[in-house]
């Protein structure tokens, strides 16, 4: 490396390694489909500077490692598999300084036929996307984060937006009752990777998001703003899951506007709360990351 330059970042790996993992327990089978990405950073930059490939663990070898580790160890959760990949590369290759491993889960669920769960048939169910990323440097603890993406939800009442800034730029009226629809993106960072039940954490996060958006089935939960719903999700998650250090939630508006039918004199209606126009662009976008406050030592 010339004296006037320094690396900001470097690494190489294999992206989008697709894999279907089948667990066979007698006649009952379970499946998970994954897309795995790996990235290694070496303790030498000779491959970049001098074209010396002698230290490179080929990206094809990284792909093969994904398949072999899945076969030999199984996959309990995407997070545990990403941790396994990081540990393997750091242990196997002393000249690897840092590993990133990302895992994305394709959403399959078991088919139900005649009211019974099928032993070996599944249906693709893209209700949301489960992804995770693990980064580990040599000699340091791994950093784990998990994301939930693409969870589209809607409720027809129990949402308002009133008393916001009123000036010469405002055109939106107060809405005391409106349709609330969004596509939830949530990600959370772990403060440890030791002894974490990642599957339980995922289910807990999913339940919190559902509960704070929808509320009880009979009465619902009132939302005075998208911002408030975001905060309620984050606060509940940090209270319920001590293993996470921060939660980021993003909720873009997916608007459904009432269609004015009053202008249709003979066939229209003065009031309309049944027929709406879906408008997803432009949309408001509300996002925040909430973390634990560091306690100062006296």
Q: Could you please describe the fold and organization of this structure?
A:
This protein is of the alpha+beta class and 298 residues long. It folds into two domains: 140 residues, Urate Oxidase (Roll); 150 residues, Urate Oxidase, CATH 3.10.270.10. 22% of the residues lie in helices and 38% in strands. It has an eight-stranded antiparallel sheet, with helices on one face. Helix 4 runs antiparallel to helix 5.
Summarize, please.
This protein has 298 residues and is an alpha+beta fold. It has five helices and twelve strands.
Largest sheet: 8 strands, antiparallel
Q: State the end-to-end distance.
A: 45 Å
Structural domain tally: 2
Q: Can you say what the CATH homologous superfamily of the largest domain is?
A: Urate Oxidase
SSE map:
Elements: E1 12-25, E2 28-42, H1 46-49, H2 59-73, H3 78-92, E3 96-106, E4 108-113, E5 116-124, E6 129-137, E7 143-155, E8 180-190, H4 198-214, H5 226-240, E9 244-252, E10 255-258, E11 276-279, E12 285-291
Antiparallel strand pairs: 1-2, 2-3, 3-6, 4-5, 6-7, 7-8, 8-9, 9-12, 10-11
């Amino acid at each position: 490396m010339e004296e006037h330059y320094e690396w900001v970042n470097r690494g190489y790996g294999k992206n989008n390694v697709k894999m279907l993992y089948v667990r066979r327990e007698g006649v009952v089978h379970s499946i998970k489909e994954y897309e795995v990405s790996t990235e290694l950073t070496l303790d030498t930059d000779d491959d970049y500077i001098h074209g010396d490939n002698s230290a490179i663990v080929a990206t094809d070898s990284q792909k093969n490692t994904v398949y072999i580790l899945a076969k030999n160890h199984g996959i309990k959760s995407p997070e545990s598999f990403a941790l396994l990949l990081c540990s393997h590369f750091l242990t196997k290759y002393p000249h690897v300084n840092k590993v990133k491993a990302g895992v994305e889960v394709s959403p399959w669920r078991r088919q139900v036929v005649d009211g019974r769960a099928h032993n070996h048939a599944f249906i693709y169910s893209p209700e949301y996307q489960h992804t995770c990323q693990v980064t580990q440097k040599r000699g340091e603890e791994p950093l784990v984060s998990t994301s939930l993406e693409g969870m589209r939800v809607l409720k027809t009442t129990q949402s308002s937006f009133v008393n916001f800034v009123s000036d010469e730029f405002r055109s939106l009226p107060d809405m005391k009752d409106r349709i609330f629809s969004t596509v939830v993106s949530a990600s959370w960072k772990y403060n440890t990777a030791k002894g974490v039940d990642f599957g339980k954490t995922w289910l807990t996060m999913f339940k919190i998001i559902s509960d704070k958006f929808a509320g009880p089935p009979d009465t619902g939960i009132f939302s005075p703003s998208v911002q408030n719903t975001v905060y309620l999700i984050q606060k509940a998650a940090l209270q319920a899951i001590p293993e996470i250090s921060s939660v980021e939630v993003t909720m873009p508006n997916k608007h459904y506007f009432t269609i004015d039918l009053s202008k249709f004199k003979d066939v229209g209606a003065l009031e309309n709360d049944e027929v709406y126009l879906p408008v997803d662009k432009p949309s408001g976008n509300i996002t925040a990351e909430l973390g634990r406050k560091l306690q100062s030592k006296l």
